[in-house]
Write a structure and sequence with these properties.
5 strands; globular; Beta-carbonic Anhydrase, Chain A; 5-stranded mixed sheet; alpha/beta; 13% strand
């Protein structure tokens, strides 16, 4: 058997994506197998980590990626921030995942009813200003929001904005020198997804 080099991923990007999809299906069926921590597992993890995917998700307490994707310890490298925005510190964490952990798959995971996106819509529509540091976060979301559509009910406008915000973060990641280099090399797959809190389903964007 060939020896796996430290920088080589255990899975391809497509295999990693399928593992996330399969995990979410187990979660939806009530068949999640999220493992109980055993001492031998912790001992192995202490030697290093080899996550197969990096998830940039929202801080919302209702959206824990390990549970949503029924993933075990050490399988996902997770970065969480309200509104799944790309700030310099977040970009640094993603760069670490790509440069040192060599995860083949990067997922930007938004969710239904996102409060940060709702706050951004309030600023966009009505000029509402939030507390200083919250407004800095909101300002990261605003450029990616679609133009308001008065024909849509508020719930549909928020749903549309949540997806647009995921796509905006994807766009920003792809615009970084590291993102462009990894995509050109074919070493990274970047996908967007929205978690539906009401159903537990993760919808991957085309």
């Amino acid at each position: 058997m060939a020896t796996l080099k430290p920088h080589e991923p255990l899975l391809t990007a497509d295999e990693a994506l399928q593992r996330l999809i399969d995990g979410n299906l187990r979660f939806l069926r009530g068949e999640a197998r999220f493992p109980t921590v055993q001492k031998d597992i912790l001992a192995d993890l202490a030697q290093g980590q080899r996550p197969y995917a990096t998830i940039l998700g929202c801080s919302d307490s209702r959206v824990p990626p390990e549970l949503v994707f029924d993933a075990g310890f050490g399988e996902l490298f997770i970065v969480r921030v309200a509104g799944n925005v790309l700030a310099p510190e977040i970009a640094g964490s993603l760069q670490y995942a790509g440069s040192h952990l060599h995860t083949p798959l990067f997922v930007v995971l938004g969710h239904s009813g996102c409060g940060a996106v709702q706050a951004a819509l309030e600023t966009q529509r009505h000029g509402v200003q939030h507390r200083a540091r919250i407004q800095i976060l909101i300002d990261n979301i605003l450029p990616g929001l679609p133009d308001p559509d008065p024909q849509l009910p508020p719930s549909a406008q928020l749903e549309r904005a949540v997806e647009a915000n995921v796509r905006w973060t994807l766009h920003q990641v792809l615009e970084t020198p590291e993102g462009q280099a990894r995509m050109a090399e074919g070493r990274m797959k970047l996908v967007g997804a929205v978690y539906e809190i009401e159903s537990g389903c993760v919808r991957f964007l085309s």
